[in-house]
Write a structure and sequence with these properties.
The structure is a homodimer. By secondary structure, the first copy, chain A, is α/β, with parallel strands linked by helices. Chain A contains 13 helices and 14 strands. The radius of gyration of chain A is 22 Å and the shape is globular.
Chain lengths: ~400, ~400
């Protein structure tokens, strides 16, 4: 009958949450702030809910220094819902902007010929996002500007050199999409790609589902950032979206979209509708917003994003250094320079050793270490809620395992 | 500092949940079944989660006697997401069925001319659903077969007589949509509309968000039933969908949709993808599934849907009878025959009396009684989790209020 202290969970998401927040949640779900009602029972339109929304939004704004001309909205449906939403809304924005320039639908129609959405495909999730764009707007509008599998011998593990990227010319680029951290493949962008400029030249959209709040981000470089909450921020069912306000205001009419043969977003994927209604166009799961808010407030109290970035770096450095010390036993999957601080993917060389590693670790309460079912191996997920003490214990375990299997 | 026992909450949703379930949830969120991890932290792909999904699905199947050739899927995004999903998927089904008959795209194109989706607009939510269909496929494909506002002098409160409905001829009817219970307006269909046949002639889609599991339903009469969980079943963030299996299998290719100029559903609204992946195409909030499962298992134990139907009827009968006893004070909003057992909407005649009613009730711990902000008045929501004792207390309060304001 293990307690929370007995289990160190390194799963890739849904991820461990701070015990402090879950202890509060345990009370809140039954009787929130002594209101006689649990938080899931309170109206999403109550003053209480409105304060929770504002609190969570403010904490996120503070942590990432979100500029005033960016909005924060909360949505449902996870990252996969955003794969579709960004296509509809950013394409809409691009069309409206061109229409304002040209004031002529025919000119926009012409401009659309050859216009592309650029995808940097560096792992499983950016691949899925690009496939969804192809479903919605057709392959001819999707340009895979970087294809990590092509340069990785059919496997993900290296972000292609920027010099090899084939980005659409700026005039024809609708937006550029990338996934900052690929959970399945353990690949993370070391920093904002130089090739994408400063955010003014190209609209940049980024999926930060698995590394948000683990390091500083210059929000100004992005048109839009989204993140499913269930890894670094909170519970499953909540998605954070940070986007430039002009994406909300510059959107074409349905008539324009129809006459250009472009898809119309379902209302729940319409950012301007969600934003206009303060994220409450329909019933938002306020309990999940509250959990995320509590997690973010703790990060603020602990010293903000700088502290978290330092901690994340220390933890992943230790893990990689320990694995690198036994190169005949541990084969780190991604290449140097593409390695994730959040998901450390490694193969253990030797028949049955991965199974043994996971089983031995589990016997010591360290769980969630199996790699994604599509790629196998071992994966250590090192999100914000993983303490340095937990990493230290895992490091000691890895060292002992290496000694026992020294070759 | 009220306890849960002090507060009788009659809010329209998110609604009260059984204290027994929330007490279990309070433990589960911190350390589920002594696994050392809270339920929101467990992988949605674990055996544990898979058992939770199966358990919830089986309970729903048992409660509503869902036939074997129907699937149950769990989704995110609430009823509003379904407003869009049903349009994409049922239109897709209709096209594919016609294509199988005609084996010729041109014939289907011809058939599409004049084909309509029929909406029975009986309140705020069915109106929103019809508006979303118009956004996605254009007004010309949407037929408001019944317009309750038109017969109600600009207000909702009466389901138009079936004889006055203008349904599209069967051959041209893509599907027929209605909302079984209108939460805002207190309007509920007394039973399955005769005019829609037996489910074989027309595809019938029904929003049961606010009355599901409160009475028996003949699932066979429907192509699809959906319900946001946060009123009668569980927490916000989960949606139940029950649909006929052939809707999953008979779907056109993207190429067919494109060449017919029909919209393509975003992947998260693609029922066949969600079903094929056992509701786990992306990360599903398993905690919410678990809560819904526990609520449904309690309903099974309490005697199933027959018991619940009897209880719901007794509770709403008492409330209506009490209000009807003072007709000079209480004006029930909807007409006889259209009155909801779930949301009892009433106006109190006399300056300031509604405010006084709500305030006095609140002072006695009876809360959530204010009508929807769009219509005002008093609304008593009488979902499954509202006990007969709670209704009795409210009935006594209403009687005392009537005596104090006898006119």
């Amino acid at each position: 009958m293990p307690t929370r202290e007995d289990i160190l969970y390194f799963g890739a998401g849904p991820a461990r949450l701070p015990t402090s927040v879950l202890t509060a949640a345990s009370t809140s779900i039954l009787n929130h702030n002594s209101t006689g009602l649990g938080l899931t029972e309170h109206s999403h339109r109550s003053t209480l809910s409105s304060e929770i929304l504002t609190g969570a939004s403010n904490a996120l704004r503070q942590l990432l220094s979100v500029p005033d001309d960016y909005s924060i909205i909360f949505m449902q449906g996870g990252g996969t819902t955003q794969f579709s939403s960004v296509v509809y809304n950013l394409l809409g924005y691009w069309v409206q902007r061109e229409l304002e320039k040209a004031e002529d639908l025919e000119a926009v129609r012409g401009k659309l010929r050859g216009a592309k959405i650029d995808y940097l495909v560096t792992g499983t999730w950016s691949q899925k996002a690009s496939e969804e764009a192809s479903r919605l707007v057709g392959e001819e509008m999707v340009n895979v500007a970087a294809d990590a599998k092509a340069v990785g011998g059919g496997k993900y593990g290296k972000i292609p050199e920027e010099s090899a990227w084939v980005l659409t010319e700026k005039e024809k680029s609708i937006f550029t999409y990338y996934c900052d951290n690929e959970t399945v493949d353990g690949v993370e962008f070391p920093n904002f790609p130089m090739a994408l400029g400063d955010g003014a030249e190209r609209l940049v959209v980024c999926d930060m589902s698995s590394n948000i709040l683990s390091r500083k981000v210059d929000v100004r470089k992005y048109a839009l950032i989204f993140a499913g909450a269930q890894k670094n921020v909170g519970t499953t069912g909540l998605t954070l979206v940070i986007l430039r306000n002009d994406i909300l205001t510059r959107q074409p009419t349905l008539k324009t979209l129809r006459s250009l043969g472009l898809p119309i977003q379902p209302i729940m994927m319409d950012y301007k509708t969600i934003a206009k209604n303060g994220s409450l166009y329909n019933t938002l799961p306020i309990f999940d917003v509250w959990v995320a808010g509590e997690v973010m407030k703790e990060l603020v109290t602990a010293g903000g994003i700088e502290t978290q970035e330092a901690v994340s770096g220390r933890k992943s450095d230790k893990l990689y250094a320990t694995l690198e010390a036994s190169p005949k036993l541990f084969q780190i999957v991604p290449m140097q320079g593409s390695r994730s601080r959040m998901n450390i993917c490694v193969r253990i060389l030797g028949e049955g050793l991965e199974k043994e590693f996971a089983a031995l670790a589990e016997a010591q309460g360290m769980t969630g270490l199996k790699g994604h079912r599509s790629v196998g191996g071992i994966r250590v997920s090192n999100y914000n809620s993983i303490s340095e003490a937990a990493v230290d214990k895992l490091v000691m375990f890895i060292e002992a395992f290496a000694v026992a299997h020294s070759v």
